[in-house]
Design goal:
Elements (H helix, E strand, L loop, with lengths): L4 E4 L2 E4 L12 H8 L6 E6 L7 E2 L6 E2 L5 E5 L1 E2 L6 E5 L5 E6 L7 E2 L6 E2 L5 E5 L1 E2 L6 E5 L5 E6 L7 E2 L6 E2 L5 E5 L1 E2 L6 E5 L5 E6 L14 E2 L5 E5 L9 E5 L5 E6 L7 E10 L5 E8 L6 E5 L5 E6 L7 E2 L6 E2 L5 E5 L1 E2 L6 E5 L5 E6 L13 E2 L5 E5 L9 E5 L2
Antiparallel strand pairs: 1-2, 3-38, 4-7, 5-6, 6-8, 8-9, 10-13, 11-12, 12-14, 14-15, 16-19, 17-18, 18-20, 20-21, 22-23, 23-24, 24-25, 26-27, 27-28, 28-29, 30-33, 31-32, 32-34, 34-35, 36-37, 37-38
């Protein structure tokens, strides 16, 4: 695992966050200067981090189409193993499930959720379950949680699912585990509607390794697309396609250095012609990450190199969201003058605009993906910051 992630008090934080406190005095001045050109920002919820609320939301959000938002927090709740939550249009939060850990429940959910047509939620927890290697779970509309599958680990199964699951029309769930499997480099798995699991692919290193904080993309033909932050020819990560028949093809090997990105995270976005888009958290011309595009012929284009200076972000870990005009939206963990993270728009013509720069009180360290509704509002989470320091749910208006 990349050494720029440090384990601090049981929580993964970026090394980039170390310098944030040193420049906190600049935040009020700089934030005021940006207000004239920024979109409308709304702090929907600040997590309290106690037994009645979650703490440290790592992933992004999903919507039910009526404005309600759903997500997970890594910690918090009665047992401090994380929660599944809902935030309505007025910002009122409801904890739908508190994880208990142990052999009967999951612990520490890092990933975003999926939702079916009747409102049931599906996700993963990286630990807990019968073998302690993580679970796939379902939460009903009434808040009843069911563990659909517990990972066994070892060489015959995956372990530690840090990414989320996606659901096909038949009700099958697809996701990744960071570790275990035949070579120990992680797996791609399928869990059917009855809770039976199949390892669809075992990563071998040369075709990718340790899929971390990422989810898959499913096309109309049933093919899956994803990224791994390690592995490939340069061990800088890959973009891959896994066909419905189970054949994996590496579409791009990241080269790292200053000419390409490295450590791609997040779920790839796909346009109508099959082009893929995403982010690599590191490398690029300033070594602070890139936005990339992969054409249908697998040719990569670096759309933007983040420099981390004023008016630009740094360390994009959540992937991108695509609108109907071909513009991309995402967030970065650092960058701009404050260093607390940004929300950005990258237009089809290559122009990047910071839509919001976090100040700490409104959030800090946005790691997850940005979601977008039909009105153009953007939604997401920050891992830390807010009124109690345990993270936030936010909205940026059109």
């Amino acid at each position: 695992m990349r050494q720029h992630r440090n384990w601090i008090s049981g929580t993964w934080l970026r090394a980039a966050s170390v310098s944030l406190a040193l420049i906190g005095l600049l935040v009020p001045i700089l934030a005021a200067a940006r207000l004239a050109r920024a979109r409308t920002f709304t702090l929907l919820h600040s997590f309290a981090g106690n037994e009645k609320d979650g703490a440290y939301p790592y992933a992004g959000l999903i919507s039910d189409g009526t404005g309600n938002l759903y997500g997970t927090t890594q910690y918090g709740g009665s047992f401090n193993y994380g929660v599944v939550f809902k935030v309505n249009t007025s910002g009122k939060e409801t904890v739908l499930h508190t994880f208990k850990g142990g052999v009967a429940d999951g612990a520490y959910p890092f990933a975003s959720l999926s939702r079916d047509a009747t409102g049931n939620l599906y996700g993963t927890a990286a630990y807990g379950g019968s073998s302690g290697n993580g679970v796939v779970f379902k939460v009903s509309t009434s808040g009843q949680e069911t563990v659909l599958y517990s990972f066994a680990g070892g060489t015959t199964d995956g372990c530690n699912p840090y990414g989320g699951v996606i659901r096909d029309a038949a009700g099958n769930l697809y996701g990744t585990t960071e570790f275990c499997g035949t070579s120990g480099y992680g797996t791609v798995f399928r869990v059917d509607a009855k809770g039976s699991e199949t390892v669809v692919h075992n990563f071998a290193g040369t075709d990718g390794a340790h899929p971390l904080w990422t989810s898959l993309r499913l096309d109309a033909s049933g093919n899956l697309y994803g990224v791994t932050p390690e592995g490939g020819t340069s061990n800088e990560g890959v973009v891959y396609e896994l066909t419905s028949s189970g054949t994996l093809t590496v579409l791009h090997n990241f080269a790292g250095g200053t000419a390409d990105g490295c450590s791609p995270l997040g779920a790839p976005a796909m346009d109508k012609t099959g082009n893929l888009y995403g982010t690599a958290e590191l490398c690029g011309s300033s070594r602070k990450g890139i936005v990339w595009k992969l054409n249908s012929d697998h040719t990569e284009t670096v759309l933007h190199n983040f420099n981390g200076l004023k008016e630009d972000g740094a360390y994009p870990g959540g992937g991108v969201t695509l609108d109907t005009q071909g513009n991309l939206y995402g967030d970065t963990e650092g960058g701009d003058a404050s260093g607390y993270g940004t929300v950005y728009e990258l237009k089809k013509n290559g122009t990047i605009t910071l839509l919001h720069s976090f100040t700490g009180q409104d959030g800090q360290l946005p790691f997850g993906n940005v979601s977008r509704d039909i009105a153009g509002n953007l939604y997401g989470t920050t891992f830390a910051g807010g009124r109690a320091g345990y993270g936030t749910v936010w909205k940026v208006g059109p």
